[in-house]
Design a protein that fits this description.
The chain is an alpha+beta fold and 183 residues long. Helices cover 23% and strands 36% of the residues. The protein contains four helices and eight strands. The protein has helices at 4-22, 27-36, 53-61, 101-105; strands spanning 42-49, 70-72, 86-88, 96-97, 108-126, 132-142, 159-168, 171-180. The longest helix has 19 residues, at 4-22.
Length: 183
């Protein structure tokens, strides 16, 4: 009987190890859970304040006026108070995102600059109990629109992100929060 003890010990250790590895969160599982939750692809947007002298200058500098996407007024008069200084042309219409009445009341327009897509998992840290995970990953921008010129980061650069997962009943769920990490 003592001869079989090491065999049983090894068998149960292997069996236990296989159950423990099931609790690990994989790169593929992270991507699948984020995709299932419609986290990616996500519209990369910009909020343009149509009553701002800075944004007027920006649309001129970035040639959005010259290329026919917006019209903008550099000089104002007293009659201009309360009116937007930037207007969007029909050429810009496909890139405009529905904007809430609250934002519209401040002359802010949401604009699509491209799509942010998941690239790869960089690191997964699971707590000792196996119930929580912190995941660092990267995204990039695809399908840039003409308004990508307003984007302040490097266009093709990967962007660092962090998110969280919780394991309940042998299943990982996404906590729904994404943190933008510094470069």
């Amino acid at each position: 009987m003592k001869r079989f003890l090491p065999f049983y010990f090894l068998f149960f250790m292997l069996l236990g190890g296989s159950f423990m590895s099931c609790s690990d969160l994989s790169d593929q599982e992270v991507e699948a859970l984020l995709t299932k939750a419609n986290a990616y692809p996500a519209d990369l947007e910009y909020k343009l304040f149509c009553n701002s002298d800075e944004h007027v200058q920006e649309v001129f500098d970035k040639k959005l006026v010259e290329n026919g996407f917006v019209t903008a007024q550099r000089r104002h008069t007293a009659e201009d108070i309360g009116k937007p200084l930037i207007y969007f042309t029909e050429k810009a219409a496909p890139y405009l995102i529905a904007t809430s009445d609250t934002l519209k009341s401040f002359d802010i327009q949401r604009i699509k600059m491209g799509e942010e897509v998941f690239v790869q998992v960089r690191n997964i840290e699971v707590n000792p109990s196996g119930s929580k995970a912190v995941v660092d990953y990267t995204t990039t921008i695809i399908h840039p629109t003409p308004f990508i010129v307003l984007y302040t980061d490097e266009e093709g650069a990967e962007r660092k992100r962090r998110t969280f997962f919780t394991r309940t009943n042998d299943e990982w769920t996404w906590d729904g929060k994404i943190i933008k990490m510094p470069k």
